[in-house]
Amino acid sequence: MAFILRKICPAKQTSTAVDTTKNGDAEEGRAFWTGRLDFLLSLIGYAVGVGNLWRFPYLVYRNGGGAFLIPYWFFLFTCGIPLFLMEVSIGQFSSSSPLTVWRISPMFKGLGYAMLFVSMVGSTFYNVVMSWVFYFLFESFTPSLGWASCDNPWNTPNCSTPNATNSSGIVLAAKEYWERRVLDISGGIEEVGPLKWELVGCLALAWILTFACLFKGIKSSGKVVYVTSTLPYVLLTILLIRGALLPGSMKGVLFYLTPKWELLLDYKVWAEACLQVFYSLGPAWGGLITMASYNRFHHNCYRTSIFIPIVDAATSCYAGFVIFCIIGHMSHESGVDIDKLLVPGPGLAFVVYPAALSKLPIPQLWSVIFFLTLLTLGIDSQFTTFETVTSAIIDQYPRLLHGARKTIFIALACLLAFCLGLPCATRAGMYIFQIIDWYYAAYVLFVITLLECIAIGWIYGAPRLSFEVQIMTSQKLNILWRILWQFVSPVFIFAILVITFIGYSPPSYGPVTYPRYVIAIGWTMATIPVLPIPIYMLYKLINARGTLLERLRQVTAPTADWGPAQEDNRHEYRVKLNEMRNQKQLVTVKNHEEDGESSMLKEEECNRITTC
């Protein structure tokens, strides 16, 4: 993997992960990636997470098999990659965090706060998943796996192992281990119960690991990704080879890939494909802006923004083969249909797959490899998402939060997030986790990205953004990118947002449903991240001067300090703008001489680029 990345983006590497010198492209006091490989691996680690291993394969199965790949790749190229390039470009161009980057259009700074809300809550409950992974990883080192047999204190008379016939009322041993041992799940969300101290300890360990990756900023995280971003591919390949050699594995692969074309007529399939792209790539979370802000000014963000999403999508497809090879073998051994074995969400990772691995020779070895894969997939996504929150606040108050204070602040932020995750370590923890997962991110992500397209694609101007990408990369963007930023992406995002609302149904966990007040709390949580957007818009408009139209112009125009962070890059930017203005004057003269329509279009484009 590292060899491929070096070929795509060659760079001279040094012994440190970052450079904070005042020369070259670096901004005084701000850390920068020393090599492009650090940035690429961080992006891969951020985009490729546990969802690639459990969410994507299940979505493929539920939404038409191989046919699901059509809407998935369609939205990847029409929404995912354009938004990826947009966020990476503005972050790299300005060396700014999700809060300070909105000097590009101050009225929309509320989007930055919305991104921080989403990242804060998302990282808090992402580490809850990591605590479950740690629990299973530790159990994998025991002589007898707890989910491999039915002779444990938590098992019921209806328990069965995977090689037994799955008759009515029979429950897999792994499911009983997951629900009755790990979660000790109660009868409903109102039965909270006490803290489960094993999960509390695993949650604390997950946050200690997060702090260890972040306490020195990208000085530490820039080194960690060399392991956490590459090791999962080694482990996934080991699992794939082992699974492919098992009897029945081809049955699982065929089940995974066989298309059900009629499901493409269902709008929900397209909505879920779009949502998966957003969940996986991470636009609207602020992480892309954060990591790109540590880039050198002339890094080829265009090439990176195409390469990383394709790697992410390919990894999801690759992980599907890993999952369905093993599940095909499990179906072959037990005689149970594959569709009856599959369960959504965490159940695929913590019930079905462990049950299948428990029947292999040396099951502890394969269980360790699998949960180590989950851990390495998840931890770099986790610390990058949480770094989005901490770095944004540190950039907002650089004089207050520096040196030892910065380390203390990161430690306190981790402690706060740990405390916020404690309710998920109770007997009602799975219900709480599901409510937050169901309501918090989906609607908010679409709202943020839609407004982002309006703010950057229309108000700031897609032609101007294209011009800035050209300055950074020396590569002129095709007009197709402007069409995607201004028309295609926002139209599809708005359509999927409407479809998501129309197709809404309240969540449930198996037979357990939630009271109305819990649903109301869920909608309240979905609203909170969006509130800073209109509040900050009103605040900026009220404090501006002049008529309403004059105020709108003031609060949407870039601030005076918007632009490259380093003075030599700012100078280069001004020179390029002057060249563009001179070109504009030449085009104007040519208009008078030729009165040609194409020249008028070029003049209009130059006007949009050079107008602040």
Q: What characteristics describe this protein?
A:
globular; mainly alpha; 6 strands; 612 residues; two-stranded parallel sheet; disordered N terminus
Can you walk through the features of this model?
The protein contains 25 helices and six strands. The radius of gyration is 25 Å and the shape is globular. A two-stranded antiparallel sheet has the order 1-2. A two-stranded parallel ribbon has the order 3-4. The protein has a two-stranded antiparallel sheet with strand order 5-6. The protein is an all-alpha fold and 612 residues long. The N terminus is likely disordered.
In short:
This protein has 612 residues and is mainly alpha-helical. 68% of the residues lie in helices and 2% in strands. It has a two-stranded antiparallel sheet.
What would you call the shape? globular
DSSP helix count? 25
Major sheet characteristics: 2 strands, antiparallel
Identify low-pLDDT runs.
1-28, 596-605
Calculate the terminal CA-CA distance, rounded to whole Å: 42 Å
Task: Give the DSSP E fraction (strand runs of 2 or more residues).
Answer: under 5%
Give the class from helix and strand content and strand pairing: mainly alpha
The helicity comes to: 55-70%
